[in-house]
Structure prediction request, 131 residues.
Amino acid sequence: MALIGILKFTQFEIEALKPLISGTPWLAWLYSVFGYAGTSYLLGVAELVTAALLIASPWFVRAGLVGGALGALTFLTTASTLLALPIWEPSAGGFPFLSFLGSFLIKDIALLGVSLVVLGESLARVRIGSR
Prediction:
């Protein structure tokens, strides 16, 4: 996630995000508020902070709580673009064959699960610690 966050500060990634964010109605407003670069930078900062919290989660339960929640929100948002973008490969017959975009985005379902596991384990640690 840290590597993905760092990438958000490059022109390459700013350009790569344009069709993804513009093509998703519930995210497109970010461009009118922050601009192309500002939106990418905002996402980069959020991803770097989330990565740092997830890395710290084994040692600091609060980092796990916040990092797990931020990771879940991040990957839920990214995975939600699967509902708006063309992810099926027409030349292969469409569903269930993923296009390049679909295969790029589908990993976020697994990463959403990882974030939820970190969040759940952190919640369990809080409950055990409060007894």
About this structure: The longest helix spans residues 29-56. Residues 61 and 122 are 6 Å apart (CA to CA). The mean pLDDT is 93.
